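Job type: complex structure
Entries:
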Amino acid sequence: MSRRVLPRRFYARPTLEVAAALLGKVLVHDTRDGITAGVIVEAEAYSGEDDPACHAAPGPTPRNAPLYGEPGIAYVYLNYGIHSLVNAVTEPAGHPAAVLIRALDPLEGLPLMHARRDTAGRAVPDVQLCRGPGNLTRALGITLRDNRRDLTGGALRIEDRGVRVPGIAWGPRIGIRVGVDRPWRCWVPAHPAVSGSRMGNALATGKGASRLP
DNA sequence: CGTTCGATGCACT
DNA sequence: GTGCATCGAACGT
């Protein structure tokens, strides 16, 4: 529908490159209820069967099949029984890898995001609507049914709207128990929508080199 | 402030 | 049966 939708070749390259390049891009979900969209400000790379934190670590299974397929496809899975987490599949087909989208700066459809997130009359500040991978899928209405959707066109997509990020910081991935040694999480320095400031996350405020780790 | 802990569903051993 | 790429309420200090 638009030339600003990221083409498949954007995803068909090293996962760390894609993760960095996704910062500043816009995740859009078009549903019956309306459009919601946000600027990606935090992401994590998961790449290869030798990455112990990657879902492909055990080798191919029915669940992780999308990771082995075409780049530019959404890999959505349920974790902790509650949260749908959305990834963008990367690298040429055959190399299992993806970028987990962890936080957005809310851009469009804020009222709809609030409607989806506000529970028990509990209001959520705008900047926290899409802070955290489970929160952003809830705000955008992304569920397991969106697994395998093509991000290069259609209702769930990622666009380039010309947003420039001021910098990129790198650090260890969050919430995993293995593979913590790999600094494969990247974020926009000091951005308030970046997750992790809960656990005394000094990293989230650090100045970032745009260089890959 | 800080840390702990229960909710909840599904893939995989 | 076990273990999560989480979240937020409920504690303790």
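Summary: Residues 199-207 of chain A have pLDDT under 50 and may be disordered. Residues 168 and 211 of chain A are 8 Å apart (CA to CA).
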